[in-house]
Design a protein that fits this description.
The complex is a heterotrimer. In chain B, a hairpin with a 5-residue loop joins strand 6 and strand 7. Chain B starts with a helix and ends with a helix. In chain B, helix 1 packs antiparallel against helix 2, helix 5 packs across helix 7 and helix 6 packs across helix 7. Chain B is 62% helix and 11% strand. Chain C is mainly alpha-helical. Chain C has five helices and no strands. In chain C, helix 2 packs across helix 3. The longest helix of chain C has 23 residues. About 10% of the residues of chain C have low confidence. The chains are: A alpha/beta, B alpha+beta, C mainly alpha. Chains A and B meet through helix 1 of A and helix 11 and helix 12 of B.
C-alpha cells in the first residue's frame, strides 16, 4: 500500500511539472515590460539641438495637458519611417511633441529635420544615451505619451504605426 | 532534387524498420531462444543504413546548394566555404535531429555486437526499449521537423548560415555531444531491460560500465568543445556563462558522473541497485529535457535553435511518456530484496562514493532549479526574473572545498570498512601546507582570501594526493588521471578568475595608451575582401615591462549573407596566460572600442578537462 | 571529532556568503555591476559583454552614478525600478524567490539524512 501511495505521488508530481512546462510553452520568451502606467518619468536636463539652450524636461512638459516624447536618431531607419506619422500627428492635433535625439551627430540630426520636416516643439539631445536609460527606454525609436505631471500614459517601443496614432488621438480627445 | 526524395523515403523506410524491430524483438523474446536470432543483426544494420543514406542525401544537398530543399535554403549559401557547407548540415534543427537518429541507430547496432556475453533476453529487451526512443525520434522528424521539405519556386540563393557558427570547434561540437547523449540513451534502454530481467547485479555492472565510460567521455569532450568555441569565437573572454543551453548539457553530465561512480559500488559490492537505475533513467531524461528546453523556445538564450512551440509539445509529450514508462516498469519490477540492504560503514569506499553522489545531486539540483525556476515563476505568478552566474556561483562554490577534500581522501579508503586511524598525520599536515601555499598565492589579489584559499588548498591537496598515487602499485590509473585533472581544473579556474585583468577604451588609429606598465599601441587598419565577408583588420602592438612586444590583429568582419557584423578577437595563448584584443566599431566614427584582456592559465582549463576525459576513455580499454 | 567538523562546516558556509572585497576602484565596480545586468536588447548577453548602444549607455550611466557616490544597491534598485527584475542576473532573496534559494539546500540536507540513515541506522 505504501508503495502505491509513493508511486501515485511521484506520478502526480511529474504531471504537475509537465503541466507547468506545457503552459510555459505558450508564454513569450522575450520580456515585454509591464505596463508602466502612472509611472512618473524622471526629470532630465539637456541642450536643445538648434539653439544649444539648456532646458529642464518638466518645464517643457508641465505647460501642456499632454506631451509626446519621441526618442529618435538620424541613423535609425525605422525612425525615418515613423517620422511622417509624427508630422501627421502634429498637423492634426497640434499636440506638443518633444524630440530626444539619441546618440547622434548634430549635423546629421539637423539635416534629418531639414529634409523631413520638424514636428517637434523642441529637440533635446542625448549624446551618450544616458538620458534614455534614465527614462527606462530600450533604444530607438521609442515614444512616450505623457500628461502634464510627466506621468506615462502610454509607451511605445519601436516605430509608431497607424493604430498607435489613432490610440493617441483618442486619448487626447477624451 | 533527387537527393531529397532519396533522403525522405529512406527515412520512411527506416521508420518502418523500427516498427518491425519493435515487434520482432518482443516476438523473439517470447520465443525463449537461447541464442539471438541472427536476423536482428541484419535488421539493425539495415535500419542504420537507411539513416546513413538519408544523412548523406542531406549533406549532398548542402554541398551542391540544392535550394529546392527548405532546410538547405534556410541555412546555407553558395558562397559558403565547402567545409562549412558540409558541417552546416547539422548546424540547424532538422539536420541535427537527423544526426541524433544517425547516432541512435549506430549505437544500438554497436550495442548488439558488443553485448554477446549477455543473456539473449536482456539484449532483445534493450533493442526493444531503444526502438521506442528511435521511433519517437523518427516521428518527431517526419511530423514536425522534416529535413526534406520542398520549396517551390526554387530560390536562387540561400539565407545563409550565421557566420558565428562557421567555426571548426562548433562544427564538431554537436556530433561529439550527441555521441554522449545517445550513449546515455543506450544506458537507459539497457537499464530498463536489466530491470525487467531482474539482472541488475555485479556482472551487468561490469558490462554497462564500459558504455557509461564511453558516453561520459564524449559528453565531457562535447561540453569542452562548446566552451572552447564560446571562448575563441565570441571573444568575450568567458568560457561558461550559465546560459540555459550550457546548463542543459551540464545536467546530464553531472548525473552521468554520479552514475559512473555508483556503478563501481554495484560492481564491487552488489549494492545500490535501485539508485543506479534511477540515475540511468535520470541521465537520459535530462538529455531529452535538454533537447526540449533549447528547441521549444521556452527559454531565452544566446544560442537557442529556431523556436517552435509545436516541436516543444511533441518533445514534452515524448519525455512524459518515457518517464511514465520508467515509473511503471519500476513499480512492477523493482526488486523487493533491494530494500533490505546491507549496512554501510562510515569509513569505507562505498560511503565515499555515496558522498560523491550526494554532492553531485546537490550541484545538479542547483543547475536544474536555476535553469527552470523562471519558467515556473512565469506560469504561476506571471513574473519574469533572470537567474545568471551570481546565483550559480553562490550556491556551488562554497561546496567545492569539501567536495575536493572528499575526492582526495575517498579513493584511499578500503571497501566495506576502514578506520580513521589509518590516516597518517602527515596527510593532515600536507593539507594545511596546501592551504598556506594557496593563501600565499591568492594574497596577491584582493578577493575573499579565507574562502578562496580553502578551495585552492583543497584543490592543491587533491593534486598532491593524486600525484602520489601515480607512484603507488595499486593505483587505478583512470581514476587518478581524472581526479588529478579535476583538481587542476579547479585551480586553473580559480587563478584565472582571480588574476584576470581587462582594459577597455576608445582609441583612434595611431593612439597609444599605457596600462598596467604596458604600452598599447593602435598601429593601423587594413581592409580586405574575402570569400563571403569584408575584413577590417587592425594591428596592435603591446610592449610589456621587459620591452617584449607582441602583435595582435583583431578583426571586424562584415558578412554579406546574412548581413551581420562580427568581431574576431586575436588571442595569443601561452602556457602561462592568454592575452587578447577585441575591437568594435563605434557608430560611424574612426574611433574603435578596444578591449585588451589578460587571462592567466586559460590553456590549463582546457588541458585539465582533456585529462579528466582521458581517465574515462582509459577505463574503457582496461583489461 | 564530528562536532568539530560540523562547526567548521557552519563557519565555512557563513564566511562564504560574505561580499567580495574589491579594491576601491570605480571601473572595477562598474564592471562588477554590468556583469550582473542583462543586456535587454541582446539575446542572453550581459551588459558587460555587450557592445550594443543600450549596453554602452548603461555602462556610462552606472559610472556616473558611482562617481556621484551612489551605492551598488541603490543603482540596482534604480534599474529594477526602471526595467523590472528581469534586468538583474542575481535573483533577489525575497518571498517569491525563497524556493529558488532554499530548495537546493533543503535537498542537500535531505540527501545528508538519507546517507546518515544508511550509515548509522540498521
Amino acid at each position: 500500500m505504501k508503495k502505491n501511495i509513493f508511486y501515485s505521488i511521484l506520478f502526480l508530481f511529474f504531471l504537475f511539472i509537465f503541466s507547468i512546462f506545457y503552459i510555459g510553452l505558450d508564454k513569450p520568451n522575450f520580456y515585454t515590460p509591464k505596463e508602466i502606467k502612472n509611472k512618473k518619468l524622471e526629470t532630465f536636463s539637456s541642450k536643445e539641438l538648434f539653439s544649444n539652450e539648456q532646458f529642464q524636461s518638466n518645464d517643457l512638459i508641465k505647460v501642456n495637458k499632454f506631451t509626446i516624447l519621441n526618442i529618435w536618431a538620424s541613423w535609425c531607419i525605422p525612425c525615418k519611417q515613423e517620422h511622417s506619422l509624427l508630422m501627421d500627428l502634429k498637423n492634426k492635433t497640434d499636440i506638443n511633441i518633444i524630440g530626444l535625439n539619441y546618440k547622434d551627430k548634430k549635423n546629421n540630426a539637423k539635416n534629418f529635420i531639414n529634409e523631413l520636416g520638424n514636428p517637434f516643439s523642441k529637440i533635446l539631445t542625448d549624446p551618450d544615451g544616458i538620458i534614455s536609460i534614465s527614462l527606462g527606454a530600450y533604444g530607438v525609436p521609442e515614444t512616450f505619451l505623457l500628461n502634464n505631471k510627466s506621468k506615462v500614459i502610454r509607451k511605445y517601443i519601436g516605430p509608431l504605426n497607424n493604430d498607435h496614432v489613432l490610440e493617441i488621438i483618442n486619448i487626447i480627445k477624451s | 532534387m533527387i537527393s531529397s526524395y532519396l533522403g525522405y523515403y529512406s527515412l520512411i523506410l527506416g521508420f518502418i524498420i523500427s516498427i518491425i524491430l519493435l515487434i520482432y524483438s518482443i516476438f523473439c523474446f517470447r520465443n525463449n531462444n537461447e541464442k539471438i536470432n541472427q536476423n536482428i543483426y541484419s535488421i539493425l544494420f539495415l535500419q542504420f543504413f537507411t539513416v546513413v543514406i538519408s544523412f548523406i542525401s542531406l549533406v549532398y544537398s548542402f554541398v551542391f546548394s540544392d535550394f529546392s530543399n527548405q532546410t538547405v535554403y534556410n541555412n546555407s549559401h553558395t558562397t559558403k566555404p565547402l567545409f562549412y557547407k558540409i558541417t552546416g548540415t547539422w548546424g540547424n534543427h532538422e539536420g541535427s535531429l537527423l544526426l541524433w537518429l544517425l547516432v541512435l541507430t549506430l549505437f544500438i547496432f554497436l550495442f548488439i555486437i558488443f553485448s554477446k556475453k549477455q543473456t539473449t533476453k536482456y539484449r532483445l529487451l534493450s533493442v526493444f526499449f531503444q526502438q521506442i526512443i528511435i521511433i519517437g525520434f523518427f516521428l518527431f522528424l517526419l511530423l514536425t521537423s522534416n529535413p526534406f521539405n520542398f520549396l517551390f519556386p526554387i530560390p536562387k540563393e540561400g539565407l545563409g548560415l550565421n557566420p558565428i557558427l562557421q567555426d571548426p570547434a562548433l562544427a564538431i561540437h554537436p556530433p561529439i555531444l550527441y555521441l554522449g547523449y545517445v550513449g546515455s540513451s543506450i544506458i537507459f534502454s539497457a537499464s530498463l531491460a536489466s530491470l525487467v530481467q531482474n539482472n541488475i547485479n555485479s556482472e551487468w555492472a561490469k558490462h554497462i560500465k564500459k558504455w557509461i565510460q564511453t558516453a561520459w567521455f564524449f559528453l565531457t569532450i562535447g561540453i569542452l568543445l562548446g566552451s572552447i568555441w564560446a571562448y575563441y569565437e565570441l571573444g568575450w573572454g568567458g568560457f561558461w556563462f550559465w546560459d540555459p543551453v550550457e546548463n542543459v548539457s551540464l545536467m546530464p553530465w553531472l548525473c552521468l558522473t554520479a552514475l559512473l561512480h555508483t556503478i563501481i559500488v554495484l560492481e564491487k559490492r552488489h549494492l545500490l541497485k535501485s539508485w543506479t537505475l534511477i540515475l540511468s533513467i535520470a541521465t537520459f531524461t535530462l538529455s531529452m529535457s535538454g533537447t526540449f528546453l533549447v528547441r521549444s523556445g521556452i527559454l531565452n538564450s544566446v544560442h537557442t535553435f529556431a523556436n517552435d512551440p509545436e516541436r516543444g509539445i511533441f518533445i514534452l509529450l515524448f519525455l512524459f511518456f518515457l518517464i511514465i514508462l520508467s515509473l511503471i516498469l519500476f513499480f512492477i519490477y523493482q526488486d523487493k530484496e533491494d530494500i533490505a540492504q546491507k549496512k554501510f560503514f562510515i569509513i569505507s569506499k562505498e560511503t565515499s562514493l555515496l558522498i560523491n553522489n550526494w554532492f553531485m545531486m546537490y550541484f545538479l539540483s542547483v543547475v536544474l532549479i536555476g535553469t527552470t525556476y523562471p519558467i515556473f515563476l512565469e506560469v504561476i505568478i506571471n513574473e519574469k526574473i533572470s537567474i545568471g552566474p551570481p546565483f550559480f556561483n553562490k550556491l556551488i562554490i562554497p561546496f567545492l572545498g569539501f567536495f575536493l577534500i572528499f575526492m582526495a581522501i575517498g579513493p584511499k579508503f578500503n571497501w566495506i570498512k576502514d578506520n580513521f586511524k589509518r590516516i597518517k598525520y602527515s596527510r593532515v599536515f600536507i593539507f594545511f601546507i596546501c592551504i598556506l601555499i594557496s593563501f600565499y598565492l591568492i594574497n596577491k589579489s584582493s578577493s575573499e582570501i579565507l574562502f578562496t584559499s580553502v578551495i585552492g588548498g583543497a584543490a592543491l591537496y587533491l593534486l598532491f594526493t593524486t600525484i602520489k598515487e601515480f607512484s603507488e602499485k595499486r593505483s587505478n590509473i583512470s581514476q587518478t588521471i581524472s581526479h588529478f585533472g579535476f583538481g587542476l581544473f579547479i585551480l586553473s579556474i580559480l587563478f584565472n578568475s582571480l588574476f584576470s585583468s581587462e582594459f577597455s577604451a576608445n582609441m583612434k588609429i595611431g593612439q597609444e595608451i599605457t596600462y598596467n606598465n604596458e604600452q598599447i599601441k593602435f598601429l593601423n587598419i587594413e581592409t580586405f575582401d574575402k570569400e563571403n565577408y569584408k575584413s577590417v583588420k587592425a594591428s596592435f602592438e603591446i610592449i610589456d615591462k621587459k620591452n617584449n612586444s607582441i602583435s595582435f590583429y583583431p578583426e571586424i568582419r562584415i558578412y554579406n549573407q546574412p548581413n551581420i557584423l562580427t568581431s574576431e578577437a586575436d588571442i595569443i595563448s601561452t602556457i602561462f596566460f592568454d592575452k587578447f584584443i577585441v575591437i568594435n566599431l563605434l557608430k560611424g566614427e574612426e574611433i574603435f572600442n578596444v578591449r585588451y584582456q589578460t587571462k592567466p592559465f586559460m590553456i590549463w582549463i582546457w588541458i585539465s578537462t582533456c585529462l579528466i576525459s582521458l581517465g574515462g576513455i582509459l577505463g574503457v580499454f582496461k583489461r | 571529532m564530528r562536532l568539530i567538523k560540523l562547526i567548521l562546516l557552519i563557519l565555512f558556509l557563513t564566511l562564504s556568503f560574505q561580499k567580495i572585497l574589491i579594491a576601491n576602484n570605480n571601473s572595477l565596480i562598474v564592471d562588477k555591476i554590468s556583469k550582473n545586468l542583462r543586456c535587454l536588447i541582446c539575446q542572453g548577453q550581459s551588459v558587460y559583454d555587450s557592445q550594443s548602444d543600450f549596453a554602452m549607455s548603461m555602462k556610462l550611466l552606472i559610472k556616473n552614478k558611482i562617481e556621484n557616490g551612489e551605492s551598488e544597491d541603490q543603482i540596482y534598485d534604480y534599474l529594477k525600478n526602471q526595467y523590472g527584475e528581469w534586468i538583474v542576473y542575481d535573483p533577489e532573496f525575497n518571498k517569491k524567490n525563497l524556493i529558488l534559494w532554499i530548495f537546493p539546500l533543503i535537498l542537500f540536507i535531505f540527501g545528508g539524512l538519507l546517507i546518515y540513515r544508511k550509515v548509522f541506522i540498521n
